[in-house]
């Protein structure tokens, strides 16, 4: 599950790209509950499990273990119960037994703050056009060599011959 801390904090709805999980974390406060929806093909088994940094149990659809539901109408809905204390809540989403998504929230008095984003969901940063840079360098070197060669050739042609 992708957590976009800047834009998404305005509406407390976290989802992203091709990720199958959407959560409205407005109720993700100590002692609160919030809904999550897992998208998938009808008939798939969707599941969620959670852990809390204090060791307190995370309730998912009234249970404290991994809860599974059949996807119907394109999604399966879960209700997440947050423990009464501040801490870090980690959720994992499964489709047909395979972990497909995860999220981590810092749950503090009155707010839930995303603390992690799946690495594969981060935008690529840094210079990505190295082949272009190498090509430009080769052209500059070839151009510089041509200028030096032409200069030497012109100097040789203008040198008078000895009688």
From TrEMBL:
Protein name: LPXTG cell wall anchor domain-containing protein
Taxonomic path: Bacteria, Bacillati, Actinomycetota, Actinomycetes, Micrococcales
Highest taxon above the source species: Bacteria
Transmembrane segments: 132-151
Keywords, sorted A to Z: Membrane, Transmembrane, Transmembrane helix
